[in-house]
């Protein structure tokens, strides 16, 4: 029956990230493949989840409080006017929010621009929707955006640009000038911007996250996706969201409901507690990750890895193998 599988399913290959994670589990090795922390989730967030389970909040559920808090946060942090009743969709993690956004926007043959290197899931979602990923290379070693390359990547078939900042896997935070160039191109070509902002609270060295939706002409065409996962160290809870204008959010919501119905109920309840965490929590999170970044960069450098770009955000370090390394990066893993 294998020959009867769909054409698209046969083009998808196993995730190298997942393969390395499973190998690390089997061998009891330290897992550096996946973007999750090596420390516990905040006690007040865990306690909120336990309380929700004990209160029997375990059935299909939509927790409007998440939407209300996200709208308030978007207004406070970015000056965005978000209607919590119509513009926010709670999903099973950022991954589902992103996939649903792609499925809502992309038709067969539509082109979607991705900044390369890119998180592997983006390409798969675009392919599943029948779209065509088009890669716009970021220039190493500082992963700068070449605006000329960006503009030449647009065609009459371009439907969306995917923007992930802070960036996986380079640790780049897109500058305001780069964001303005992307925003100008999106407005000129009349296309969507679909963002992945899961690392918005993890930036270093006075870098500040800017959501492209805040730039002129962009809120009406931007889908912001994010999640609880990275900010609160609960990557296994699968609580994420999409924020978009009402008509776009409605399409995303319909797709979400048809695929998964609702995100895990007790963890939605815990999200309400998490999203009300005091400013000191976010300051501590940033400081902890910045110290870990500095340690990892120093440690890898001392082992002979060349790190030309010190990460500005996220939880990733792009390191070149030493010249005397005898194996490939795959064999070395």
Q: How much of the polypeptide forms β-strand, as a percent range?
A: 5-15%
* Structural class designation: alpha/beta
Shape: globular
Give helix and strand order, one letter per element, not per position. HHHHEHEHEHEHEEEHHHH
| Number of DSSP helical runs | 12
Amino- and carboxy-terminal Cα gap: 34 Å
Strand order in the sheet with the most strands = 1-7-6-5-4-2-3
Total beta-strand segments:
7
List the helices and strands and how they pair.
Blueprint: H1 7-11, H2 16-27, H3 43-54, H4 64-78, E1 88-91, H5 93-105, E2 111-116, H6 120-128, E3 132-137, H7 147-153, E4 158-164, H8 176-189, E5 192-196, E6 222-227, E7 240-243, H9 246-259, H10 265-274, H11 279-302, H12 329-332
Helix pairs in contact: 3-10, 5-6, 5-9
Summarize the structure.
The protein has 333 residues and is of the alpha/beta class. The chain has 12 helices and 7 strands.
Could you characterize the architecture of this molecule?
The protein is of the alpha/beta class and 333 residues long. The protein is 42% helix and 11% strand. It has helices spanning 7-11, 16-27, 43-54, 64-78, 93-105, 120-128, 147-153, 176-189, 246-259, 265-274, 279-302, 329-332; strands at 88-91, 111-116, 132-137, 158-164, 192-196, 222-227, 240-243. Strands 1-7-6-5-4-2-3 form a 7-stranded mixed sheet, sandwiched between helices. The protein starts with 6 loop residues before the first helix and ends with a helix. The mean pLDDT is 94.
Notable characteristics:
333 residues, 7 strands, 42% helix, 12 helices, alpha/beta
